[in-house]
Design goal:
The structure is a homodimer of 209-residue chains.
Chain A (H helix, E strand, L loop, with lengths): L4 H23 L6 H8 L3 H7 L3 H24 L5 H18 L1 H10 L5 H25 L1 H5 L3 H14 L12 H20 L12
Helix pairs in contact in A: 1-2, 1-4, 1-6, 2-3, 4-5, 4-6, 4-7, 5-7, 5-10, 7-9, 9-10
Chain B binds a DNA duplex (16 and 16 nucleotides) through helix 3.
DNA sequence: CCTACCGATCGGTAGG
DNA sequence: CCTACCGATCGGTAGG
């Protein structure tokens, strides 16, 4: 038999972290027991401790690797060298696509990271800060008036609000999809920022004149 | 001595629920023990069970009475009979004021209500639905194109995203206050909705021409 | 016979 | 990779 131990080890680990993300997202970190996770994975509880040193490390792995995905996404869009409006539009669309595919990881990031100890939580927060900064730059490029008023990070957080809040109400099987949200959020942000914070208050209009 | 027993009972109960909201907001419902709550209140743990039949009832009382505040706020603004733009502007401003004063209750509502059993959770959710419906009506009055496209509830949720997300990042002692957020959120929403979803795409402009 | 409240400890389950 | 357990702490309640 071939030595496929490392491969199956990683597969098993990924399956366990995927299931952990699912349970943490549904019930919350502290309301999920290691016994429940073991049962859901069809393995014994002690086996879980072969893949993570404790429960908190599982939470960290889920959140940190998801942040790696988001950081990579931002860098990938930056290499496209798009003009400002298209760049911000692409960022929002790619984020919503990612949320749709990693719904559980996203909820864990938003609702459970605060239960980590200082050091690992800080590691995740640093990556979050890099992503926020990238969005703030993209917003400033679209509308220089925003950063002149020192509001680029604030507007970025308002955008994250619109985008991140969807996970609390958008049903996966509902009539509206994450893809439908992208043009809506993009339209409201671009028109809103130009109208409210634009130096000349010029307008970006998706509707026919 | 006067019979002030009922008054002190209610005072004690309110003090305990206030402290419960604080701990639940900071640490989360399941990460807060009744022993910690008792210690934080300076009372014995059994005394807590004189004011609530169990831990879940404390969570329910915090969330449900906070929703009563929000429902009353919406009704109070409706009795002002303001024109559409002013009505929506007032709703947003009053909500952000309330969040600033009831920061802990708000976080508990957002992050811990899901840990309630079906029946009490549904009771809170019904009040939430009434508030969302009121915002959807206010948005539809401002821009009829939104409800014609069947997006009034969706735009209301986008607005709640901008507003509710602030509790995750806005520091109480930071340079930006909840009051500063109101014109920003209102401006982005009104300009965004008019520009993106307006039948004639007319513009609401806060900036000088 | 009630309320308000204590020190001590219950049965069960958590993470490990 | 399992059964069998641990020290500790959980939410909740006993007697007085």
């Amino acid at each position: 038999m071939a030595r496929t131990k490392a491969a199956t080890h990683d597969q098993q680990r990924n399956a366990i972290l995927e299931k952990a993300a699912e349970l943490f997202a549904e019930k919350g970190f502290h309301a999920t027991s290691m016994s429940q996770l073991a049962a859901a994975c069809g393995v014994s509880k002690p086996l879980l401790y072969h893949y993570a040193k404790d429960k908190a490390e599982m939470l960290f792995s889920v959140a940190d690797s998801y942040m790696d995905t988001l950081v990579a996404l931002v860098e990938s869009v930056e290499t496209e060298q798009l003009p400002p409006d298209a760049h911000l539009t692409r960022l929002i669309a790619r984020f919503l696509e990612t949320y749709a595919d990693a719904h559980n990881q996203h909820r864990v990031l938003v609702q459970d990271v605060r239960h980590l100890d200082d050091a690992p939580r800080q590691q995740v927060a640093d990556k979050e800060r890099a992503v926020v900064a990238a969005f703030a730059r993209a917003i400033a490029a679209v509308e220089p008036g925003v950063s002149e008023k020192g509001l680029d990070k604030v507007v970025a957080m308002i955008l994250f609000g619109m985008v991140n809040w969807t996970f609390t109400w958008l049903r996966a099987n509902g009539p509206l999809t994450y893809e439908d949200m992208a043009p809506l959020v993009t339209g409201i942000l671009l028109n809103g920022v130009h109208g409210t914070l634009g130096a000349a208050s010029k307008k970006t209009n998706n509707a026919p004149d």
